[in-house]
Amino acid sequence: MLDIAALARLGGVKKYGEDEVFFNFGDNGKEMYIILKGRVGVFINSFDGFPAKLSELKTGDFFGEMSLLENLPRSATISALEETVVLIINESNFEHVIAQQPNLAMRIMKGISNRLRQANEELSFLKKGTKPGEEDSSDSTGEAGAISSSAPVAVKGPIFPPGHKSYNLIAPSTHETYLFDKDTECPVCEKKFPVRMMRSSKLRLDKVDNDMRQHFEEFEPLWYAVWICPHCLYSNFNFEFKQISDALKPKIIEHGKTLQGKVNLNFSIPRKIDEVFLSYYMTLQTLQQNGKPEPGKFAKVWLRLSWLYSDVGDEEMYDFTTREAYTAFKDSFFNTRRDSSVEQDQRLNLLLGELSLRVGEKEEAMKFYRDAIVRKSGGNNVLNKQAEDCISALKASLAADQEGV
Ligand SMILES: [Zn+2]
């Protein structure tokens, strides 16, 4: 047992509020934390960089030891699930802490191996996806609010592609339970502005689609995933908002000046879907300022736009954005260097198979599904099974096409 009272006397005690983030995936840091009181969530970025909750840690548990011991970047995002008090251990007090609590060293070693095992188990749950035979029956109007009866109005402007409309969809009141307000500092212009944060501690995963879309009970994170600085118009996904290169900052500021007065960036409460669409298209604007295009980043935005268009029932724009996502993911998959794991590549192959199907390229889809099956070590059997199911369904569909000829 750790003597928590004794540990607390070693100094470096800090309190974190509910949903406050200790650090983000990829951050540098040299501290580890022991939870003296409270509970935290461990989040990893799934294959396309979006956070998924892996596990929880409670009083007496610790985290961040890999960064302290091996100087590695943070391998997960950690945030408080309730008010949490931690002891912060760094290089200067580590030996002192170990001397006072010798069994802590052993626990750290055991903790590392246990956590890896647990992570693998919980990841396989997240990757199960929609059960075979279970159709996506979610009724977007019931889930996300009410679409007014008036027909969508075409929207023109410097931001939206042709065919984009105004959709009159408003966030349902259930969303508020999962949100809280906070000020953040823009990494580009360094001015402060308020953002709506998600209470990740409260989110309940309902199901995962074949295209990796996660559905949650009573809440749609897509509506709040993008932050826009109202001062310089820098836009990006919230979990990588601070990760912006210095070289890009002046370009974003210059570009923002050209858009000032042309876009209305005020988010309403409750939020309107039109504002949500704008936030994603503004993120594309940010990405376009980079001279070296990163197709993987564009792909993430297009895929999410396709989900939003699916929710508002705009088939034409759904097709358009699905194609954009498909092209960008393929470009990222074949033409850019990725430091992804075998499993991440399996998932990307599954996604590419799904997107191929949606754009009508069945032969292509078959290739991606086959490549998603990896029997050697590192391959995930849940994903193998999912790929096999997709192949069976596709074979049946191809056979039906034959008969139809
Ligand atoms: Zn700014």
Provide the low-confidence segments as ranges.
Answer: 127-152
| Termini gap | 71 Å
Share of helix, binned:
40-55%
Associated small molecules: zinc ion
Number of helices: 12
- The total number of structural domains is 3
Gyration radius, rounded? 23 Å
The secondary-structure class comes to alpha+beta
Shape annotation: globular
Biggest sheet, spatial arrangement of strands: 1-8-3-6
Report the biggest beta sheet as strand number plus sense, adding barrel if it closes.
4 strands, antiparallel
Strand content: 15-25%
Query: Quick one: how many beta strands?
Result: 16
Helices and strands, in order, run as: HEEEEEEHEEHHHEEEEEEEEHHHHHHH
Mean pLDDT score: 82
Can you walk through the features of this model?
This protein has 405 residues and is of the alpha+beta class. The chain folds into 3 domains: 4-126, Jelly Rolls; 140-334, no CATH class; 339-405. It contains 12 helices and 16 strands. The strands form 6 sheets. It has a 4-stranded antiparallel β-sheet. The chain has a 4-stranded antiparallel β-sheet with strand order 2-7-4-5. It has a two-stranded antiparallel ribbon with strand order 9-10. A hairpin with a 6-residue loop joins strand 11 and strand 12. Residues 127-152 have low confidence and may be disordered. The structure holds zinc ion (ZN). Zinc ion binds next to loops.
